[in-house]
Amino acid sequence: MSWGLHSFLLGCHILFAAVWVGGVLFIGWGVYPVVKKMPPSRQQTFLHALMKWSHWPLTAAGSGVIFTGFLLGTVLGPIREWESLWRSDYGQIWLFSLIVGLAVLAWGALVGYRQAMKVLSDDSLWRRAESGDTRPLMKAMRSIILVESLEAVGFIVLICLMLLF
């Protein structure tokens, strides 16, 4: 029974991770470069709607990754007591993965999303870009890219940690 449950949770863990990481990276590396070819007013409308719509599903997928990872390491895994976290390689990697996962989720959901919505809601930036002065908008969009790139770095760290298991 526990082996079947373990396999099911591992499958869910991988699926949630694919949705979370894939969704964030697809928006950043797939959608955004194409949207940049649109006129600024359409960019603002599209990106605002996309961010608003995708925020909760991607946050839920990230939460699913963390929750299933927690269960896989504890209830269905080798971590049965606090000492396992400090005295085993698995426990140390698992704890570090949990901390990084929580930090990446919080960063994306609280910092990155808010930064993006702040820029996407600033109508003056978009009006200036529509009238030909794109520099302030480009600077604001670079700030989003910089903030969101830390989420991508966190994903790379998490993938490297998973390869250690």
Automatic annotation (TrEMBL):
UniProt name for this protein: Copper resistance protein D
The entry's keywords: Membrane, Transmembrane, Transmembrane helix
TM ranges: 6-35, 56-79, 91-113, 144-164
Organism from which the protein derives: Planifilum fimeticola
